[in-house]
Amino acid sequence: MLRRLLCSAPAAAFVMLLLGASVAWAAMGQPSPGEMGFQGAASPVAEEIHKFYDFVNIIIVAITVFVMLLLLYVMYRFNERANPTPSKVTHHTILEVAWTVVPILILVAIAIPSFRLLNLQYSYPKADLTLKATGYQWYWEHAYPELGIAFETRMLDDAGLEELKAQSLPAVRNLSVDNEVIVPVNKVVTVLITAAPDGVIHDWTIPGFGSKVDAVPGRVTSTWFKPTVEGVFYGQCSELCGKDHAFMPIAVRVVKEEVYAGWVDAMKQANEVGKAAGAEKDKEKRKELLKQKKDLLEKAKGVVRQAALEQAGVRKFAKTDDATQAK
Ligand SMILES: [Cu+2]
């Protein structure tokens, strides 16, 4: 907490303090009211983004303070009254070299960690799991190509939120979804991202993982993350895509490996039964298979619900500095 108070967004905090506003630090996985700074980092890339942000902010504040003090000094020392006969000096070699070289050094000092971060973001480690996200107007489809699992992710309406609340599950307006993406903790997830061929550009974003990539029709873009904290991480489409742009959130739930295995099992079975139902000619048998599929999907949802309940019990979502606690 102290580290974040001292380092994270010092300029923003300073402005907020000047304005007399209360500074609330961001929660994990979702935005919180009056939030300052980033949402808690839950992946190596997000952690590095935060470090880089803090570092650049320190430079920004230092330069701002330096220039402000310099201006105040000039106003005091060289005003007409204090300095009636101004100097005629127009060039000063050492000073000119200094104010050229020092900014260059500052830019180099920023460029080195910046390129290091870019390299981390774009050098993909070996994936434990591949996820495919496709943006539609206006919802997402998520698929696990290696496992044959695919489902649509749509935002929950008020009735859906009430249903979650009735089960003592966290319900977040405009962020909670019907089908969450489930991933195991501490595994590398590569995400392939695209958009409907006849659609528009979207953007698959999860701030907690430092992932933000455009979903472009006819192109495959990608990102990767390695979730280090269990819980649910929300994101929103971040590319203006039309009327319901604000209503196509993404929710990634990070769970223990065995929970993930249970979910995958039920989803795979549901998929197979669904395929069998599609091929079945007999009406009655097909009906029976479709019912089985529904039960299996419900079982998968039950696994997620159980994990969500446990996670909600462990973590209070808002107003805690979970990033610091997680370290
Ligand atoms: Cu969109």
Features:
327 residues, alpha/beta, Immunoglobulin-like, 2 domains, 3-stranded mixed beta sheet, 46% helix, 18% strand, elongated, disordered N terminus, binds copper (II) ion
Short description:
Its cofactor is Cu cation. The protein is of the alpha/beta class. The chain has 8 helices and 12 strands.
Structure description:
It is a single chain. The protein is an alpha/beta fold. The protein folds into two domains: 2-122, Helix Hairpins, CATH 1.10.287.90; 129-317, Sandwich (Immunoglobulin-like). The chain is built from eight helices and twelve strands. The strands form four sheets. A five-stranded mixed β-sheet has the order 5-4-3-7-10. A three-stranded mixed β-sheet has the order 6-12-11, covered by helices on one side. The protein has a two-stranded parallel ribbon with strand order 1-2. Strand 3 and strand 4 form a beta hairpin. The radius of gyration is 26 Å and the shape is elongated. The chain starts with a helix and ends with a helix. The model is unreliable at 1-25 and 316-327 (pLDDT under 50). Bound molecules: copper (II) ion (CU). Copper (II) ion binds at residues 135, 138, 202, 237, 239, 241, 245, 248.
Strand order of the largest sheet: 5-4-3-7-10
The outline comes out as elongated
Briefly note the CATH topology name of the largest domain: Immunoglobulin-like
How many β-strand stretches? Answer: 12
Count of helical segments?
8
The set of bound ligands, ions and cofactors reads: copper (II) ion
Q: Give the distance, in angstroms, between the N- and C-terminal Cα atoms.
A: 11 Å
